[in-house]
Specification:
The complex is a heterodimer of chains A (578) and B (77).
Chain A (H helix, E strand, L loop, with lengths): L9 E8 L4 H12 L5 E5 L15 E2 L10 H11 L6 H21 L24 E2 L6 H11 L3 E4 L1 E8 L5 E8 L5 E11 L27 H8 L4 E2 L8 E3 L8 H4 L5 E3 L14 H12 L5 E4 L5 H11 L7 H8 L8 E5 L12 E2 L12 E3 L10 H22 L7 H16 L6 H16 L5 H17 L8 H26 L19 H4 L2 E6 L5 E6 L10 H4 L13
Parallel strand pairs in A: 1-2, 1-8, 2-5, 8-15
Antiparallel strand pairs in A: 3-4, 6-7, 7-8, 9-14, 9-16, 10-13, 11-12, 12-13, 16-17
Helix pairs in contact in A: 1-4, 1-10, 2-3, 3-10, 5-14, 11-14, 12-13, 12-14, 13-14
Chain B lengths: L11 E3 L12 H5 L5 E4 L4 E4 L9 H5 L5 E3 L7
Antiparallel strand pairs in B: 1-4, 2-3
The chains are: A alpha+beta (578), B alpha+beta (77).
């Protein structure tokens, strides 16, 4: 690595950016494919406890297990849940590798729920098929991944973030500029390939609590990878299909219906009445949730108070030790005993996350983005509803394909002008003695995201939003950071600004409504298949602004019948129709 | 543009008696995804330096002496 004072540049074959879920898998698989490769796993935090699963996960949301589901059924379900806008090949690539990945994780020591015969104990949560496999002891996930990193001799570098990817003469990947979050040291890596595994854009909207870091996603996932791909010239897709989740109000974490559903818990209105047939997260479900929340029967609750004591105890054990264990502490202070009363829920701030919706960096079934040498996997890669298991599968695909790419390609030449300009851009806030703090700029930006981009979407509001974002962009010249930690936040704030601009551009471009609440446009309330049965791609335009265009949907490999296509539009319980 | 100092009550509390940062332990600082904890070298204890908490709890779970306690940030409670 090089600092400002030395000329040494680190050469890496596979640079994996982000050590949460997909990242460690990509690094291990690249190393397995060719142990001679120099594989580096870069992490903004510490790989021991980083990413969306820093405290583990309570289950697989999309396990395709023989005897319970087939890859064909799964592809169909995700196509329908995503209102038809999918590249089925990418979903099929996941589905076909899903079971092998479960068995691999099982062999690594991940404990899945099994029945008395030793078979995986799969539960039904989705609208059509059966795909949820509980992991009641899933809190050990990060430790298991860490062991594999050590075993495969992956080089891990913690506390560095990537600020920009560098490109070569033909637009291909050439390397990356790194920033140390504790020392503000800048480093340059020349890389044949990078695998972006930086997770969701979780700090886009502002939580209703007003606390910048009280987000649904791990707030360290600020959308870094979305902005990195954008500036490197890659296509992003489905950014108008936001992530919006039903959460515990104020706590802003999952309630969590996937865990409680199979035990008999469900989402209810103030009367304790069920109003949606299925608690699986989709835009269509979120629209019904929103309608109930805004109605005289609102707000919305998670109802468990009808369940038996031993069932509630089991639910508490899972929910209060996994994924977001501080849930129990929150409930305690509020007096939210599951036995006695329902838990109030609300709608999250908006974000990008293909793991839950479909907003991501465009990839094909080999995890390749549109820029040679750049791969993407996990929550930020546009494979709809991919969740944790999808992150592992696509991490593996990316790692293996990147290893092959390295065998066939040489390093691209670094452009020193790009590097110098980037160093200046990144370090500028540190060199200003006073000015606007990154926190003020981030707070204002994210408050504007809520005011102008949160669905229901209105054309004029989104246009005003873009004006406000441009004003904030102009103010970047005044941003001041007092130490390296604040410089990390200042850099993240600029990623968030890129994401806000892309979210507005993509939402304005698609002049119809689709995916329920995710893209509900009040002035274009109907779904318009004649004009908008297509992907909406976002790229950085010539004028440095986000530009959008249509991309045709590849012919389906699994056909859908007409009544199947509309299945996710029939989620409301008939007796509660207004 | 002069800067003002606005204090906040932070959610992560460290028991100074139990904390062994003075013996070189940095576990809570190492595992924090948001890098908001630091060691106060004068007192030899860990503390929350930046109020940027996801109340995710690795600091509490991984502390070898149970010195760290994560509360829910006041704005969310």
């Amino acid at each position: 690595m090089t600092t400002e004072n030395t000329e040494e540049i680190m050469q890496v074959d596979v640079l994996v950016i982000g050590g949460g879920t997909a990242g460690p898998m990509a690094a291990v698989k690249a190393k397995q494919a060719n142990p001679k490769l120099n594989v580096v796993l870069l992490e903004k935090a510490n790989v021991k406890r980083s990413g969306a699963i820093s405290m583990g996960m309570d289950g697989l949301n999309n396990a395709v297990i023989p005897g319970h589901a087939t890859p064909e059924q799964y592809v169909k379900e995700i196509t329908v849940a995503n209102d038809g806008i999918v590249n089925q090949k990418t979903v099929m690539a996941y589905a076909e590798k899903s079971f092998d990945m479960i068995n691999l994780l099982d062999s690594w020591g991940v404990k899945f729920e099994k029945d008395e015969t030793g078979d995986y104990n799969v539960k039904k949560v989705h609208h059509m098929g059966t795909y949820v496999l509980p992991m009641p002891e899933g809190h050990h996930m990060k430790r298991i991944l860490y062991r594999q990193l050590k075993k495969h001799r992956v080089k891990v570098i913690n506390r560095y973030m990537v600020t920009r990817l560098l490109t070569g003469k033909n637009g291909e990947l050439a390397g990356a500029v790194l920033l140390n979050s504790r020392t503000a040291e800048i480093a340059v890596v020349q890389a044949k390939t990078v695998v972006l595994c930086t997770g969701a854009a979780g700090r886009l909207g502002l939580p209703s609590s007003g606390y910048l870091f009280g987000t649904y996603e791990n707030p360290t996932n600020a959308g870094d990878g979305y902005a990195l791909a954008y500036h490197a010239g890659a296509e992003l897709s489905g950014l108008e299909c936001y992530q919006i989740n039903p959460l515990i109000k104020d706590y802003n974490g999952p309630a969590c219906a996937y865990v409680t559903g199979p035990f008999g818990g469900y989402t209810a209105n103030a009367d304790g009445q069920r109003f949606i047939e299925c608690d699986y997260w989709s835009g269509q479900m979120m629209l019904e949730f929103y309608r109930e929340l805004e109605s005289g029967r609102g707000p919305v609750f998670l109802k468990l108070d009808h369940l038996a004591e031993e069932t509630i105890k089991e639910i508490e054990e899972i929910l209060h030790s996994n994924e977001r264990p501080s849930r129990g502490r929150f409930h305690e202070r509020r007096g939210n005993n599951y036995r006695e009363r329902m838990v109030e829920m609300h709608i999250s701030e908006i974000g990008f996350c293909s793991g839950h919706s479909a907003s991501g960096v465009w990839v094909d079934e080999n995890a390749r983005t549109t820029v040679p040498g750049i791969y993407a996997a996990g929550d930020l890669a546009c494979v709809p509803h991919n969740y944790m298991l999808g992150a592992f599968v696509y991490g593996a695909i990316a790692g293996e394909d990147a290893a092959n790419y390295c065998a066939e390609n040489d390093f691209a030449e670094l452009d020193l002008e790009q590097i110098t300009a980037e160093k200046q851009r990144v370090l500028a806030p540190l060199q200003r003695e006073d000015g606007i703090t990154p926190y003020q700029m981030e707070y204002k930006l994210r408050r504007m995201v809520n005011d102008y981009l949160q669905p229901p979407k209105v054309t004029k509001k989104m246009e005003i939003g873009l004006e406000r974002f441009n004003e904030i962009k102009h103010d970047l010249q005044y941003m001041s950071a007092k130490d390296p930690h604040e410089l990390m936040r200042a850099t993240e704030m600029q990623f968030i600004l890129d994401c806000a601009e892309m979210a507005a551009a993509a939402s304005l471009y698609r002049t119809e409504s689709r995916w329920g609440l995710y893209h509900y446009r009040v002035d274009y309330p109907e779904t318009d298949d004649a004009n908008w049965y297509c992907h909406v791609q976002t790229v950085k335009g010539e004028t440095e602004q986000a530009e959008c265009f249509k991309r045709e949907i590849d012919p389906y490999i699994i056909e859908l019948s007409d009544d199947e296509k509309g299945a996710y539009n029939k989620l409301r319980v008939a007796s509660t129709t207004a | 543009m002069p800067l003002a100092y606005t204090p906040t009550s932070v959610p992560v509390i460290v028991d100074a008696e139990a904390c062994i940062a003075n013996k070189g332990c940095t576990v809570c600082v190492d595992v924090c995804p948001l890098d908001v904890l630091a060691i106060d070298k004068e007192n030899g204890t860990a503390y929350m330096k930046y109020d940027e908490c996801w109340y995710c709890m690795p600091c509490e779970a991984d502390c070898p002496t149970n010195a760290v306690k994560v509360e829910i940030p006041y704005l969310l409670r």
